[in-house]
Amino acid sequence: MEQQIANYLDYLGLERGLAKNTLESYGRDLRQFSQYVSSKGAKSLIALDRGQVLLYLDSLRRQGKSAATVSRSLAALRSFFRFLHREGEISSNPAALLDTPKIGKRLPRVLSSKEVETILYHPTPSSPVGLRDRAMFEVLYATGMRVSELISLQVADVNLIAGLAKCTGKGGKERIVPLGTVAIKAVEGYLSTGRPRLVRSREVRALFLNRHGRQMTRQGFWKLLKQHVRRTDIKADISPHTLRHSFATHLLENGADLRAVQEMLGHADISTTQIYTHVTRTRLREVYDKAHPRA
Questions:
Q1: Which of 85, 109, 158, 292 has the most beta carbons within 10 angstroms of its beta carbon?
Q2: Sign of the C-alpha dihedral, residues 263, 269, 272, 274?
Q3: Cα dihedral 202→207→208→212 (10° resolution)
Q4: CATH superfamily of the domain spanning 113-291
């Protein structure tokens, strides 16, 4: 099974060009399934049927996994078995006709403009890491990038004169996003004073570096953000994606076109972007209820 999973992941990476993080997610789901069926005595995937897949999904539910997690696992299995069927390794897809669990749409957590400002200005630009953190937060909020896109930026990807940045999104798709004047100033400060003191090797092309002079990681960024938020009076649980959600919502609240926001976020389908129209309507209702004397 391990070899079949490896072949499938190679196919996703080489032929379909899926991102590294997506491949890791698929790999985790498939190996977890492989471990489950192996523990039940299965020697190969050839003899597996629909009932065994259902038992596995039920085991996930009994472990308390969310509908979203079960749905993601089913999607991974369905795609994996489809690949094996196409390759002639199994006679049918045991996950093909299984119903996907219904997932209620959950509105993303969005920060107020004041809360965003509190986070952006928390790093003190008096040290290399302070300059770096300020620049990273400013760029993330100015562009709506995913964290994986932010940490993958190279110095050459940022044109501070034109006020633009080139980032690579899901599936290796490149897009150009504008940088605001505040973000440009923060990156200028980091490049002139902060990065030269962090870089250990002149061969490092990554824009944002850790203390060891290597490219910042997703985990490293997450820890830094958590540390800064903990030192503010913001009590909500904030993730790196919260700044992306806030970027999109604040643009729409101030009259930005939905198609333009879709392009800046790098969404392939506008229906993904439309979740933010629900967020803005919810926020407008909250403002109305608080401000209108007859609400």
A1: 158
A2: positive
A3: -10
A4: Intergrase catalytic core (1.10.443.10)
Check for a shared fold between 2-86 and 113-291.
no
Domain boundaries, the chain: 2-86, 113-291
Report if pTM > 0.85: no
Bridge-based pairing state of the strands 174-178 and 158-159:
unpaired
φ and ψ of 168, to 5 deg: -110, 115
> CA-CA distance, 252 to 84, in Å (whole number)?
44
Active-site residue set: 146, 170, 241, 244, 267, 276
Homologous superfamily assigned to 2-86:
Tyrosine recombinase, N-terminal domain (1.10.150.130)
- The candidate with the shortest Cα–Cα distance to 176, out of 144, 218, 207, is 144
